[in-house]
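Why do we care about 3D structure at all? Because function follows from shape, and shape follows, mostly, from sequence. That is the central idea of this module. The next example makes it concrete: a single protein chain, its amino acid sequence, and then its structure expressed as tokens.
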Amino acid sequence: MSDLKHDNWAGTTYGNGWMHRWLVRFLKVVDVRLLYAFAAVFVVPPTMIVNSAARKAITRFYRRRMGLGRLRSWWMTYRNHCAFSQVVIDKFAMYAGRKFDITIDGFEHFQRLSAQDAGFVQLSSHIGNYEIAGYSLAAKTKRFNALVFGGEKKSVMTNRSRMFDDNNIRMIPMQADMSHLFTIDRALAEGEILSMPADRVFGSQKSFSIDFMGRKAKFPQGPFILASMRDAQMLFVAVMKTSPGSYHISVIPIESDEPGPARKKAAALAAEYVRLLETTVRRYPTQWYNYFDFWAD
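And the structure:
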């Protein structure tokens, strides 16, 4: 399970390399539902007790942003932690070679942009299990560049690299000095696919303040400024868990007819991204995995 502390927001996966290797071997022979049940009973409750800051943040989300009562919010908080533990288990199950049933809406948008010479931007968020998108949507003709947290555990990065290499995917670790910006700009310039999250401010503190779930929240300017300056098309992609063995992927174009300078167009694209994000969160409220005060000033 990922670290839920909001320490510069970025988290790493709990456990050391030996534990991760053991989990991968274990999932080669054991049904994931057994681990789901184990986590729900023996992992989630103590995690909620120990990591009270994360628990309180997500409970406030259900109380203030979803408008739920106190008891319902507590129940949703528990379900949210269980859903998050399942996403982490599924990630290691994929490393172990397990397959999930994937349905996709809007795949034609991805195919259309992949067939063009120009590069494009695919935006994710901390909902559902976006990592599956990398294995499901990777294009055969274009390299897929995935922006990832640079401080992740070595064992997780090794497993990702092994699976990504088989799918024409390159990882670009995010760095505090923002040096990754040169790599992602070059990827777009060379007509490749750039995949990155757009729901958390990291490194550069430049942000757009946009209405989200009934209150203003900050979203990074970088992805939208980059796309506007490069005149690159954008896709919103959400990978949501629908059953123990199934996921549903939604691929939706992020478009705006806003004229004028790049910053104005970027703000309009960001607003459209946030609208799509809110629609998805309201449909899958237990799969919102931002464990800090997202609406803090």
